[in-house]
Write a structure and sequence with these properties.
- With 636 residues, the chain is an alpha/beta fold.
- It contains 28 helices and 15 strands.
- The strands form five sheets. The protein has a five-stranded parallel sheet with strand order 8-9-10-7-11, covered by helices on one side.
- Helix 8 packs antiparallel against helix 9 (214-231) and helix 8 (198-210) runs parallel beside helix 10 (238-249).
- The radius of gyration is 30 Å and the shape is globular.
- It comes from Pseudonocardia yunnanensis.
- Keywords: DNA-binding, Transcription, Transcription regulation.
Length: 636
């Protein structure tokens, strides 16, 4: 009678023959076996095995050493090259085993069965199947006894994420089924083991609340909010805030009440759009243009709508508002990704966005391609028969956006501080350059945040606040938020406070980097070459740069830099929305950008350079038209 061999990777690596755990020996043998088992019934190249074994520092006889480890695994399992479970492939090896003999395959099967139970709205069955699936895990993270940094990084991290997602879903179901008392102890341990996973905190808050322990639920919220702020510098996410509102909004139910449970994304169309900003005002022309572009038919159907503009001008708010307004045109849902093109963190990697999108669209995690081109193909194939809206916020470059564009039939909205000119060439785009808010629209934004009566009581002060902020939506929202925090303060008094000190320093909210105007402009400058950053600094002190426009010749004359270098630098600044392009080859600088540039000049330029860029009060500064005949002289 043949022996029964089972393989276990959801914990320390184990091979069990007839109920007896075999001794595996050397660490590198475990690396080869684990790499083969994680790709069971699929070929693994020798190059991949070499990488897993030596992480880029392979010896000269690496391939021969791999062959020796494979021979030892065959002897361990029984059989030779012809009849062993480890088969030779053209450029590698494959371990061929029944799916029921590998715990990872059984886990995947049970999760798939749970998804089918979810599709049938059978919460009890889904919970039971996920409980069975999770019981296969003997330790987290798994394969801790396999000494391979590449395997731990590339394979184990993904396994842990699958485990945590299944665990998250099972707890969600248990709460919906009224089992809050049963999960409280488990959640107490989980938030200590995975303090950065907000969902576990939200589950714990809801379980405590439904158990009648509202005070502890609120204490948990304060604890996680403090942790997120101190460790990551972020505020609680949407789910945590929703749990907080749930705890605050009503007494705990007297008896367990089953809450509705969200179906998996493959069952219900995804609706990933963020909440639209309250107090959104104006932009009727731009909204109409976006709606028209997304509804266009013919050769330009499906061309992305690209919204560009300076930091804080309101690109994301406009895109989200427009996306909500056209949601009914896209019955198959909406996908949203923050590409972090101008974020303190690195831009979001395209494969990470693709992987999240295709999982949302129903592709099982264990079926995800590892090659980026294959991920793009899978993404576009999954979208091919759907009418969906894709919103890509904060793009760094056209190269980051192109792989995320659907093949056809979907709408796409992209926002960026960069001009993304390449998208106009391929695949073609609808382009909207977002300017600052007009005076009436700025007042309407203030009224939306402060209330119409408060703005109507001080119309002149409201107009002055809009002017002081240069129509920047971000600056106006920060100023309005400060007035909300100080309801006794008048708008005129606040304008005086802002005008009497460092405006850029004053326009920030403590503890919220996303509202910091200086930080936003720092991020716009991050990708610039040093000489282009210096040009911005030298332009800052010049009078007239915020008016109707100046030319490259005028800027070169005023800064003392070469005309060709200045011309290239002005285009580089305009490409990231630190300057506005104006008619007749002119440029204009926003008032807040000018304040920022002048501040940088004070700290980063020599006194001589600052003096050259800050002329005497009675000395003319040449701005506007090219020298010499059409020079515009300004003594302001």
């Amino acid at each position: 009678m043949d022996s029964i061999i089972e393989f276990r990777v959801l914990g320390p690596l184990e091979v069990v023959r007839d109920g007896v755990v075999l001794r595996l020996g050397a660490g590198k043998l475990r690396v080869v076996l684990a790499a083969l088992l994680l790709q069971a019934n699929r070929p693994v190249s020798i190059d991949d095995l070499v990488d897993k074994l030596w992480d880029g520092a392979a010896p000269g006889d690496a391939r021969g050493t791999v062959q020796k480890y494979v021979m030892r695994i065959r002897r361990l399992l029984g059989g030779g090259a012809e009849d062993s479970a480890v088969r030779t492939e053209p450029d590698g090896y494959r371990i061929t085993i029944p799916t029921c003999r590998l715990d990872l395959h059984r886990f995947s099967t049970l999760c798939a069965q749970a998804a089918r139970a979810a599709a049938a709205d059978d919460d009890v069955a889904e919970s039971a199947l996920l409980t069975d699936a999770l019981s296969l895990w003997r330790d987290v993270p798994p394969l801790s006894d396999v000494p391979s940094p590449p395997l731990q990084r590339d394979e184990v991290a993904g396994l842990v994420e699958r485990y945590l997602q299944a665990l998250d879903r099972r707890i969600e179901l248990d709460l919906a089924l009224g089992r809050h008392a049963e999960v409280l102890g488990e959640l107490a341990a989980l938030v200590r083991r995975h303090p950065e996973r907000e969902r576990f905190w939200a589950h714990r808050m809801r379980a405590l609340h439904r158990a009648g322990r509202q005070g502890e639920a609120l204490a948990a919220y304060r604890e996680v909010a403090s942790l997120l702020a101190e460790e990551l510098g972020i505020d609680p996410g949407a789910d945590l805030r929703a749990a907080h509102r749930e705890v605050l909004g009503a007494p705990a139910p007297a008896a367990p009440v089953a809450a509705p449970v969200a179906r998996p994304p493959a069952v219900r169309p995804p609706r990933q759009l963020p909440m639209a900003d309250s107090g959104f005002a104006g932009r009727e022309t731009e909204l109409a243009a976006i709606v028209d572009a997304l509804g266009e038919t013919g050769p330009r159907s499906g061309a992305p709508v690209v919204i560009t503009g300076m930091a804080g001008v309101g690109k994301t708010a406009l895109a989200v508002r427009a996306a909500h307004g056209v949601a009914d045109r896209f019955p198959d849902g909406a996908l949203f990704a923050d590409l972090r093109g101008h974020s303190p963190a690195a831009p979001t990697a395209v494969p990470d966005v693709l992987a999240r999108f295709v999982r949302t669209l129903g592709l099982p995690a264990d079926a995800l391609p590892t090659d980026e081109d294959e991920l793009v193909a899978a993404y576009r194939s999954l979208l091919a028969d759907r009418r969906m809206l894709v919103v890509l916020d904060g793009a760094a470059s056209a190269e980051q956006v192109r792989p995320l564009l659907p093949g056809s039939g979907c709408g796409v909205l992209v926002t960026s501080r960069a001009d993304l000119a390449g998208l106009a060439v391929s695949p073609g785009s609808h382009r909207i350059v977002l300017d600052v808010l007009s005076g009436p629209d700025g007042r309407a934004l203030l009224a939306g945040v402060l209330g119409a009566p408060r703005v109507a009581a001080e119309p002149a002060a409201a107009d002055e606040l809009v002017r002081l902020c240069g129509g920047s939506a971000l600056a106006l929202r920060v100023a309005a938020a400060q007035l909300v925090l100080h309801p006794q303060r008048g708008i005129a008094e606040h304008v005086e406070r802002l005008s009497s000190g460092d405006l850029l320093t004053a326009l920030r909210l403590d503890g919220d980097a996303a509202t910091d105007v200086v930080a936003a402009l720092d991020l716009s400058c991050r990708a610039l070459d040093p000489e282009h950053r210096r040009l911005l600094r030298l332009l800052g002190p010049l009078p007239g740069v915020t008016e109707e426009g100046f030319t490259a010749a005028a800027a070169a004359a005023a800064t003392g830099m070469g005309r060709a270098a200045v011309a290239a630098g002005l285009e580089a600044l305009a490409a990231v929305s630190l300057l506005d392009r104006r008619p007749c080859a002119r440029y204009r600088m926003h008032v807040l950008v000018r304040r920022y540039a002048a501040r940088r000049a004070e700290t980063e330029e020599t006194p001589e350079a600052r003096d050259r860029a800050r002329p005497a009060a009675d000395g003319p500064v040449i701005v506007g038209h090219p020298l010499p005949r059409f020079a515009r002289i300004s003594n302001s």
